[in-house]
Amino acid sequence: MDDVLAQFTAEVTRALVATGQVPADLIELATPKPNIPTDLAFPTFKAAKALGTAPPALAAALAAALTLPPDGLTGTVTTFGPFLNFSLHPERLAVAVISLIRATGAHYGHQQIGAGRRMVVDYSAPNVAKRMHVGHIRSTIIGQALVNVHRALGYTVIGDNHLGDWGKQFGVVLASVERDGTPTGQGEAVLAALEAQYARYAADAKADPALDEHARLWSLRLEQGDPQARALWQWSVDLTMDAAQRNYDRLGVAIDHAYGESFYEPMLAEVIQAALDHGVAFREAGGAVVVEALDQMPTFLLQRSDGGTLYMTRDVATIHFRVREFQPTHIVYVVGEPQALHLRQLFALVRTMGYAKTTELTHVAFGTVFDSAGQPLSTRRGNMVYLETLLDDAVSRARAVVEQKSPELPAAEKQAVAEAVGVGAVVYNDLYQDPKRNLTLDWERMLATEGNSATYLQYSHARCRSILRRAAEDGSAAQPDALALLIHPSETRLLKHLARLPEAVREAGKRYAPFVIADWCYTTAREFGVFFEQCPVLKAESPALRAARLALVAATATALKNGLSLLGIKAPERM
Q1: pLDDT tens-digit series, residues 407-445
Q2: Residue 281, SS3?
Q3: pTM
Q4: Using CA atoms, how far apart are residues 243 and 387, in angstroms rounded to an integer?
Q5: Please, which contacts does 444-450 make with residues 24 or more away whose CB atoms are closer than 8 Å?
Q6: Nearest-CA neighbor of 384 among 367, 371, 397, 368?
Q7: For residue 263, what is the DSSP state?
């Protein structure tokens, strides 16, 4: 089912072609700037040049020749110099938008433009034996939103959690456990103890080369299948994933696969040999395998002189496996900006090796997380914020807001709302802006009930649901509606914006930009606020108008909930 604005565009295009004065390939319709009081424009410059006439003359001739369907979405047609402008018919717009939202419900905004295409999204990727921190939250939140958006567009999306569980850094973990023992306890407390052991060993290894060499040997033992190394590795993986899953559950994150770097170990010899066979790598006298400069980027290693492998080796094997296993049309990496060079080198290498001939490889980069004082969060600075702690803090702060705003709610519902609001604040604080921008943890802004925050959006949805509950209690919800009565300017603005959700989903998918959905949600909440102030709902002038406005409120609630859902944010019924 075409969305309303797509129907409008198709209707205008057909009418222009039917005049016989301009061919379809010269018709390029455009959305006017916000200060232009029309909904769709045909700038005639290109067509007029091709047809050998003046743009204003062509616009006037087309306006005179147009015949529009009497029951269509187009209302008025005007000319302004070279522009032919088309405005939506308010009554028929109201009927079309609300009818479509009613018919599609939770799937409003979804479409099938990606049908038949497969996409692998590489996201989250925590390091084994470490707690998830704010550095992981960006990849996790952005990645899940992109998964949601592209599934709504009809793609078959495969989420892959590429765990950091191999290599020299894990050798340090194993060496520290050998020296200091296996920590005891539960949950993230054990991971915290492992991190402390790791940090102590790493610091000592800087001063003692023998310790550094011992950790390197542990990483080799792990790669070579040593039973003790593998047992400690499996224990660490299970411990990390159990802790990570609790965070994922709270964030609404569901990743299809968790193939760690270790999964690709049996494929590495093939990858190294293929690089040598394709002539893009050579083996040095000492045994190291070096990749020649690609696309004027620095050279890099695929294998150390001691036979050990590197991130790059495993990343090449990962793409080879994904292409063979999933046959994706797209592979998307949600990875921090500092890894941009590594990914450029990776993409250039696999294309040269023929591993991704028809697969589009995309890096969705994101910036750094800062604290409220403007300092980057890091363990060395002592200001690192861990994910579980961050979510707990957010929910605690949200609970205080709920206690203040809705003291009458039952205790269990207060906690559920606080969880939705707190977690939603964290998620939205990341997604409402371009991922390339740096992120600041600012609790007052994140939990504000006004302005561009998840709390404001959730409150707008809850207000819609409250109006509908009150209508059900007094019986007004049962009145037949007359949607064509919705012609107040604020009603029309809200309806036009509701009609834009499918377009916003398409744009967010095309640009890998969840902030497009966030912006749509924020504008929806603002337009609903204006409508609510200017158009009485329960006290409307007539029963028919009240019923029509209730239908608009219900449509707004559905659309806003759908938009928030694409971002991974819950929409409580009451707040």
Answers
A1: 999 999 999 999 999 999 999 999 999 999 988 877 777
A2: strand
A3: 0.93
A4: 10
A5: 446/394, 447/394, 447/397, 447/398, 447/401, 447/421, 447/422, 449/401, 449/405
A6: 371
A7: G
> What average pLDDT score do residues 308-315 get?
92
pLDDT in tens, 89-104: 999 999 999 999 999 9
Domain contains 404: no
CATH number (domain holding residue 31): 3.30.1360.70
Which pair of structure tokens corresponds to residue 492? Answer: 């029309």
Distance CA 470, CA 478 (A): 12
34, with CB counted inside 10 A (0-12, 13-18, 19+), is: exposed
Q: How confident is the model at residue 478 (pLDDT cuts 50, 70, 90)?
A: low
Copy the structure tokens of residue 332. 């998307």
* 352 assigned to some structural domain: yes
For residues 312 and 301, the answer to whether their CB atoms sit within 8 Å is yes
Our measurement of the distance from residue 210's CA atom to the centroid of its chain's CA atoms, rounded to an integer in Å, reads: 45
In a domain, 567, yes or no: no
- The overall longest dimension of the chain from CA atoms, in Å, is 89
Instruction: Report yes or no: 289 and 303 within 8 Å, Cβ to Cβ.
Output: yes
